[in-house]
């Protein structure tokens, strides 16, 4: 690929790698076409890097580390805040890019850009609150204190489903902590990651402090794992790739944070407010076209209200507008790609063949507007059994089984009957039950009458095979820091 001229107009998307403060082509001159999942058209040709580019980026990050980490938290924070302001200024542009490359409804893209800016703002504040502590001594004349120090260069790997906020969720705390960053966004959605880097660049974050390398995932992942310059890997994606990284990290005992798959349950008790429970369960299911690691994957409803919940949920599902994400009023966009579509359809067909009833949806939309994308109508399944794929595999699409239960113990047992443990949702007005069930659920986050438990200010992560470590909240910055103990014998 010919060298591109540097683009400074924010309305023109950045399409080159960002390494050491410069926009550059990949070493091998390859390009990657970014497709619009709504119609298969090519939106942009982006420079595609190599393992060697990842190495150059890690070296740049390593050179930038001493001076970046020496700044005060206040100084780093003020640059992060400027980046957040630029994200807000460019919210409409970035959101449009996100809908083009990811497919999600524009309203959700706008919310996501604001969410990314909030991460930068919040960690701008946290940058000056990375307190160590004094530990009371046991031997006269000795003193003990702890320092919080940045781990060093961080390699971050992010998926396509929330391409802006998930990068912000790693980059903001890493930069606030004093780490420098090499980010590898998903190949399907590189444009908003480049837009984020551009905001950082124009905010005055120095060269090498944040770098973006797009390219073959396995090669770049291996460079992060095998290059000792990279001291930390923070990954969001599938459990399968999480396992690969965990195995690879063993060689250098590399510091890892993993945010992996989920199979989240919603428990609706008979004392819940029915209308709210339906609306919020639907939100937890259909947001981002069901392509979320904390998406509702199984809804369990207490027998007494099962029928009325089901009818209302089906009616709500039928009322959702399935359309390209840029269309006014779209609720459900296209699935990202063919493998994702195939997996959803396989789960629906498998359930049907084993005796499940399709209460609504279950089909791919046809017609001029839909034929070149993967649009699946909101699908509700009943009469499902635990041997069906939809009850054990993660579902990344607008499909949901709704299952009756009799009592609290059964609800908890069924919700926990999965190798995953990312999030769970409860709908009840009984405070005692809310606490009992929240405490018994094996999940990193529990939403009580709440379909959006994920927020900048509180820890997020999984138990069991949903991951290791926590992002967001004060835990999010700790993930990029090491605790050092300094032991002092006072002279004389
Ligand atoms: P998804 O199924 O959501 O695409 P993946 O786990 O495949 O989830 O991808 C999440 C991120 O991990 C993407 O940026 C992808 O390119 C990257 N990735 C995929 N395989 C590897 C690998 N072997 N090593 C490192 N990163 C990988």
Question: What do you see in this structure?
Answer:
- The chain is an alpha/beta fold and 492 residues long.
- The chain has 14 helices and 20 strands.
- The chain has helices spanning 51-70, 73-89, 91-102, 106-126, 165-177, 191-203, 217-226, 239-249, 274-286, 303-318, 338-353, 408-415, 431-440, 473-478, and strands spanning 17-19, 22-24, 30-35, 42-48, 134-135, 142-150, 153-157, 180-184, 210-212, 230-236, 255-259, 264-268, 296-302, 357-360, 379-382, 399-405, 423-427, 445-448, 467-468, 481-489.
- The strands form 5 sheets. A 7-stranded mixed beta sheet has the order 14-15-16-13-12-17-18, with helices on both faces.
- Strand 10, helix 8 (239-249) and strand 11 form a beta-alpha-beta unit.
- The longest helix has 21 residues, at 106-126.
- It is globular.
- The model is unreliable at 1-8 (pLDDT under 50).
- Adenosine-5'-diphosphate binds at residues 157-159, 184, 186-187, 217-218, 221, 237-238, 241, 244.
């Amino acid at each position: 690929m010919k060298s591109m001229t540097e683009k400074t107009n924010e309305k023109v998307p950045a399409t080159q790698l960002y390494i050491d403060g410069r926009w550059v082509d990949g070493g091998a001159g390859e390009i990657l076409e970014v497709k619009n999942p709504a119609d298969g058209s090519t939106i942009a040709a982006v420079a595609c890097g190599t393992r060697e580019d990842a190495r150059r980026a890690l070296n740049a990050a390593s050179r930038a580390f001493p001076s970046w980490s020496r700044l005060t938290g206040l100084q780093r924070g003020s640059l992060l805040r400027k980046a957040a302001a630029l994200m807000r200024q460019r919210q409409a542009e970035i959101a449009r890019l996100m809908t083009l490359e990811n497919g999600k409804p524009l309203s959700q893209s706008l919310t996501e850009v604001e969410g990314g800016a909030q991460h930068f703002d919040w960690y701008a504040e946290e940058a000056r609150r990375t307190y160590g502590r004094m530990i009371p001594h046991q031997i006269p004349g000795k003193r003990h204190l702890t320092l919080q120090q940045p781990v060093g260069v961080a390699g971050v790997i992010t998926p396509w489903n929330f391409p802006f906020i998930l990068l912000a969720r790693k980059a903001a705390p890493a930069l606030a902590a004093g780490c420098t960053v090499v980010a590898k966004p998903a190949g399907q959605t590189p444009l908003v990651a480049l837009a984020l880097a551009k905001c950082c660049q124009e905010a005055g974050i120095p060269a090498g402090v944040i770098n973006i390398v797009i390219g073959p995932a396995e090669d770049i992942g291996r460079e992060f794992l095998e290059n000792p310059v990279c001291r930390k890997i923070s990954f969001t994606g599938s459990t399968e790739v999480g396992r690969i990284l965990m195995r690879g990290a063993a060689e250098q005992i590399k510091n890892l944070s993993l945010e992996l798959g989920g199979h989240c349950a919603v428990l609706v008790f008979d004392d819940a407010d029915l209308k709210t429970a339906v609306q919020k369960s639907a939100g937890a299911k259909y947001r981002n076209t069901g392509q979320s690691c904390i998406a509702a994957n199984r809804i369990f409803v207490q027998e007494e209200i099962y029928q009325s919940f089901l009818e209302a949920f089906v009616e709500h599902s039928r009322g959702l507008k399935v359309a390209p994400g840029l269309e006014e009023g779209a609720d459900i966009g296209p699935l990202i790609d063919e493998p994702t579509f195939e997996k959803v359809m396989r789960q629906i067909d498998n359930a049907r063949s084993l005796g499940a009833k399709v209460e609504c949806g279950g089909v791919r939309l046809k017609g001029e507007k839909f034929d070149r994308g993967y649009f699946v109508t909101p699908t509700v399944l009943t009469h499902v059994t635990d041997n069906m794929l939809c009850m054990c595999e993660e579902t990344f699409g607008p499909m949901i089984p709704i299952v009756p239960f009799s009592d609290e113990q059964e609800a908890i047992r069924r919700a926990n009957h999965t190798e995953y443990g990312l999030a769970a949702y409860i709908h009840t007005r009984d405070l005692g039950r809310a606490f009992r069930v929240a405490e018994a659920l094996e999940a990193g986050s529990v939403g009580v009458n709440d379909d959006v438990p994920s927020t900048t200010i509180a820890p997020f992560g999984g138990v069991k095979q949903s991951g290791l470590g926590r992002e967001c909240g004060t835990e999010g910055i700790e993930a990029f820091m090491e605790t050092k103990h300094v032991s002092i014998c006072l002279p004389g």
